[in-house]
Amino acid sequence: MGTPQFSTFYPDFYIERLENRCIKCKRCVKECTYEAHLWDEKKKILKEDHTKCIGCHRCEAMCPTKAIIIKPHPSQFREHANWTPWFIKNIYKQADQGGVLLTSTGCAVPIKNYFDHLVLDACQVTNPPIDPLREPMELRTYIGSKPSGIEVEEVNGKFRLKKPLPPLIKLEIPVMFAAMSFGAISLHVHQGLARAARDLGTLYNTGEGGLHASLYEYGSNTIVQCASGRFGLHVDYLNAGVAIEIKIGQGAKPGIGGHLPGEKVTEEISKTRMIPVGSDALSPAPHHDIYSIEDLRGLIFALKEATEYKKLVFVKIAAVHNVAAIASGIVRAGADAVVIDGLKGGTGAAPTMFRDYIGIPIELAISAVDKRLREEGLRHMTSIIASGGIRCSADVVKAIALGADAVYIGTAALIAVGCSMCQRCYTGKCPWGIATNNPELIKRLPPEVAYEKIYNLVHAWGHEIKEMLGAMGLNSIESLRGNRDKLRAVGLTKEEMEILEVKHAGEV
Amino acid sequence: MNLELNVHTLHYSQVNRILRKAIEEGKVNFKLYGVNGHRYLAAGISKKVKIEIYGTPGLDLGAFMKGPEIIVYGNSQDGAGNTMDDGKIVIHGMGGDVIGYGMRGGKIHLYSDAGYRVGIHMKAYMDKVPVIIIGGKAGDFLGEYMAGGIIILLGMFSRYPEKPIAGLFLGTGMHGGAIYIRGKVKESFLGAGLKPYPLTSEDEKLLETHLKEYCEDFNLNLSEIFKADFIKIIPYTHRPYGKLYAY
């Protein structure tokens, strides 16, 4: 007998098969990419291996007779407030395999969610709310560096600007799609995001895996990314979008580089990334040409020179302790937008300790950065894009009231296309055909379906945002930006309220 | 078809604008005089033109470029050939740090010493194979995270006789490509898990092809270079960190 593998003894999930409903069609066997459903040809019965179930619910959703229920496994450890099954099982895994715990999505630890402690204002009696169905309501947002002032001259009786304005990007809704690379997610999801971005008047971000030939037509709705691995980064790619995002850090894993596990590096991915098939796509922790703010300025202007100043340059960092000072440096280095990715930001692969415990909540980071930039007279020189844990349109409204210009959503867009948050993106076996490039699996999510779902979600959020603005008596999202007066705290300490610059509910 | 220009009093942005416009007008040969720390020269240019530079170009010479041939009569500062895609950079002197970072194709021929972090994360796909040849010595982290391409380190034309041919952490995390070194390196200088190998006949042919071109660029004698043996450093696996994780 070999060494016991403790981690295989206690499954997380229990597959319940309702025998009176099951017609033995074997659809579950076909759907499960983790081989948790098995067909016993001899006995002509279906069997389950609970230890292999990852709780994605694909079988349950696809079963034609609804004969399957996926439940938490009823087997329990003796209750202990400190040593919960999560910690016990993680220790078993590491004792068995001796490795770093790897996971996906964003922070799963219930660290205080400040969005849930902030409530919004609405008009009552003294000033009337606005009904967006009857009256104009503007969500249009301009991203980029705005001049300190404008000079106007009169020519032949007409007024015109003396100097042209720097390039700005017009968003019809301040919700963009966060960087998710081709490799991490399927080409179909990329195609869906790109088309949805175009029809919604917003932008999607290619992530650092390069750009598939079929997506160049969406250029005016594209942000391309320059990360430390420099994957798929060539001059045509840099010129393909309207903005270039230098990725310094990511909320899910501040301080380390991207990691596309070898399991997901197929022939096609190998080609765009120019690395061997099956090798891990490793992005170094730092950009090795950036060790300081001065170096960052070096890369920002290298990109601007290479693209003849036609593209905006964003700089994305993870929200960490010193985020405000870093953001200030980034603006001084010449970035047109600062992207801050909070503690709850998602990922396709990150060490669990990083995902759960490194970085600070985005709500505090937005406010701190906005305040610092205002104090230093830099706020107009940049846009603040917030990301990491935006779950609903009210989160968008709160983020903007705390000082963001726009937000990125990543996880929310993936949930819109069927993701059930099983947190196994790193395996490349995504049963929903989202976080995979297996040619068979990606067929499970055609690009048209991805497009429709993502479009619907953001369209609906847009309407909700308009309703919330109207209720507050605002007719433009610009009037909400940094408008802390529209927020009140419930159950926050004085210190927290100071950082957020909000009053407590009940205060006037 | 030619343009000669003294750029001493011009900002790098102006120089690049002039270059781009002249290229659009069909000019293919350029001589830039008085170059003194001008950054980003030829960055992002994707035409097959020849640019001769007299002086010291600044940060990120030829960054992201795809096609030009740049010849520097002098030293070059940090970041030459940053994420370069195609073309050639020949430097008749020393180079700075971070040469050829994330390089995807083309060639960098450096006559003398290179700084730290050279050739980090070079890549290759099929016949698109970037090459960096360093005539002098190199600092720490040469070829770190290398995913493809070729680095050849000669150690012959160095200003630092007391230094070892390459610095520490040579090839750390490399998972593709090859580093060829004339002479020997201490194994303790190599990245974890790496070992030096003797050359195969294929390696020798490859070296000869690349070094022949190098010798032509700098008017050197190929047989002098081959008077010493080379070693080769290649990845011991294409997944150096594959076993790092528990699932």
How is the topology of this model organized?
The complex is a heterodimer of chains A (508) and B (247).
Chain A: E1 13-17, H1 27-31, E2 37-40, E3 45-48, H2 58-62, E4 68-72, H3 85-97, E5 100-103, E6 118-120, E7 141-143, E8 152-155, E9 158-161, E10 169-171, E11 175-177, H4 187-200, E12 204-205, E13 222-226, H5 235-238, E14 243-247, E15 259-260, H6 267-273, E16 281-282, H7 293-306, E17 312-318, H8 323-332, E18 337-341, E19 350-351, H9 352-357, H10 362-375, E20 383-387, H11 393-401, E21 406-409, H12 411-416, H13 447-471, E22 487-489, H14 494-500, E23 503-504
Parallel strand pairs in A: 11-21, 12-13, 13-14, 14-17, 17-18, 18-20, 20-21, 22-23
Antiparallel strand pairs in A: 1-4, 2-3, 5-19, 6-22, 7-10, 8-9, 15-16
Helix pairs in contact in A: 4-13, 8-10, 11-13
Chain B: E1 2-6, H1 12-24, E2 29-36, E3 50-56, E4 66-73, E5 86-91, E6 107-110, E7 131-134, E8 147-153, E9 176-182, E10 196-197, H2 201-218, H3 222-225, E11 230-233, E12 245-246
Parallel strand pairs in B: 1-2, 2-3, 3-4, 4-5, 5-6, 6-7, 7-8, 8-9
Antiparallel strand pairs in B: 9-11, 10-11
If classified by CATH, what would the architecture of chain B be? 3 Solenoid
How many domain units of chain A?
Answer: 2
Q: Largest interface here, residues on each chain?
A: A-B, 46 and 49 residues
The number of helical elements of chain B comes to 3
Q: What is the CATH fold-level name of the largest domain in chain A?
A: TIM Barrel
CATH architecture of the largest domain in chain A: Alpha-Beta Barrel
The helix/strand class of chain A is alpha/beta
The residue-averaged pLDDT of chain B reads: 96
Widest sheet of chain A: strand order? 11-21-20-18-17-14-13-12
- Global shape of chain B: globular
Strand residue content of chain B:
25-35%
Radius of gyration of chain A: 24 Å
